[in-house]
Write a structure and sequence with these properties.
Elements: E1 6-10, H1 16-23, H2 26-32, H3 40-49, E2 57-63, E3 69-79, E4 84-91, H4 101-116, E5 121-126, H5 131-140, E6 143-154, E7 157-167, H6 168-179
Parallel strand pairs: 4-5
Antiparallel strand pairs: 1-2, 2-3, 3-4, 5-7, 6-7
Bound molecules: coenzyme A.
């Protein structure tokens, strides 16, 4: 497999002011379902509350060529008994999207989830109109599990959420197939 153009590193406290600006951008807060307008103090508090919390990991997605931090990818709600976790990802600036960086970052975090944390299943929720996100998840091997009807209230109306997931065995068999 060719080397990724992106790498993941754990999000640091020093990244929080950038991340706070990103998540306060209406486009990102709406897509990601974050409550808008988080102060820097609130964001720092949120970050510090996660330092000793093994139920979530947030990584910065960075370009190998110049170390630019282009977005975040994370695992949340990690359940070490059922061995599953919820994935979330965003690349902030449009200019870094649809160039394959999201695919690479997602594969890296799946590798971490399945090969390091020994997760059994990684799942996510997305909206039917996020065509590029859905195309990316399906390309990677996520399978649509179902529809959460009128699950998300946004801009005065309820919208559906789609559930996708990938199992450890599916990811690992794909990886082996690619090496052959
Ligand atoms: C979703 C996101 C992480 C994907 O990362 P990315 O780097 O843009 O995605 P990639 O380039 O790796 O792959 C996207 C795929 O969608 C395809 N695509 C792009 N626009 C599309 C569209 N309108 N319809 C269908 N497919 C589309 C691309 O061609 C690409 O497939 P390909 O590699 O086979 O050509 C990124 O676009 C993003 O952060 N978007 C905003 C936040 C978001 O939507 N997060 C997910 C919430 S669930």
């Amino acid at each position: 497999m060719k080397e990724s153009r992106v790498y993941l590193r754990i999000l640091e406290l020093s990244d929080i002011s950038t991340t706070q600006q990103w998540i306060n951008d209406p486009e990102i807060s709406q897509i990601m379902g974050y409550l808008p307008v988080k102060s820097l103090k609130q964001q720092e508090k949120w970050y510090l509350s996660g330092v000793d919390d093994n139920s979530r990991y947030i990584f910065a997605i960075c370009l190998r060529e110049n170390e630019t931090h282009i977005g975040n990818v994370g695992l949340g709600n990690i359940d070490y008994i059922s061995r599953n976790a919820q994935l979330s990802i965003f690349i902030y600036d449009d200019k870094y999207r649809t160039q394959g960086y999201g695919t690479e970052a997602t594969k890296l975090i799946l590798d971490f989830a399945f090969n390091r944390l020994n997760m059994h299943k990684i799942y996510l929720r997305t909206s039917p109109h996020f065509k590029n996100a859905i195309a990316m998840y399906e390309k990677i091997g996520f399978v649509k599990e179902g529809v959460l009807r009128q699950h998300y209230f946004d801009n005065g109306k309820y919208t559906d959420k789609l559930m996708f997931s990938i199992l450890q065995e599916e990811f690992l068999s794909q990886k082996l197939a690619k090496l052959n």
